[in-house]
Amino acid sequence: MNTRSTAIVLSILITASVPFPAAAVTGTNEQVATAERALDRFAAAGLELPAVTIEVFDTTEPCRGNAGYATSGPTSVNGRGEYTISICTEKRYERTLIHELAHIWAADTLTDADRSKYVEFRGTESWNEGEWHEQASEHAAENITWALLDGDVWIHSAISMQDDASLTAGYEILTAAGR
Q: What are phi and psi of 123, to 5 degrees?
């Protein structure tokens, strides 16, 4: 069974105005435009993304039952990882996409020392182990999503330290690593 969206499917190559690797996006015209906005948000913040393929599905199976899922592939582009993001929701599509893009930015940018510093700041046990809400990697993705989206941004209620001061400090810790 084909799990891709049954809407009109487009596949285009998006190249950012800065020298970031390209993103291949599969989806409707609206989904592609939203992906372009999300990529532009990262570029405007100076957060360089690696090569990424973004696919939209109408079932949660490709996302392991989640709204979105980011994976890295075995290939390399200019010495960096190549990533795939699967989006399996129409609800909060842009928010979910930015969250998943934040995961690949962190995977491609942060060192072990950077991750340890953020783990300590957030008071979690590890970067990527344990329950979803206890993983600093999820806190980081939520933190970056909060910083890049405009207005009142929904953050999963299981994520602690949601006040503006904590989120600002967390964003500064994360992005200092990438500069």
A: 75, 30
Would you report the helix, strand and coil content of the chain in percent, each value rounded to 5? 45, 20, 35
Number of separate domains in the chain: 2
Residues 85 and 11 in one domain: yes
Amino acid at the residue 33: A
Residues 30 and 71 occupy one common structural domain: yes
Query: DSSP secondary structure string, 90-119?
Result: STTHHHHHHHHHHHHHHHHH--HHHHHHHH
Residues in CB range of 175: below 8 A, 6 or more apart: 45, 46, 47
C-beta of residue 47 within 8 angstroms of C-beta of residue 38: no
Q: pTM for the whole thing?
A: 0.80
- At 130, list the tokens: 């344990």
The whole domain housing 95 covers 1-109
Regarding whether 21 and 41 lie in a shared domain, the answer is yes
Are residues 34 and 63 in contact, defined by beta-carbon separation less than 8 angstroms?
Answer: no
pLDDT band at 161 (very low <50, low <70, confident <90, very high): confident
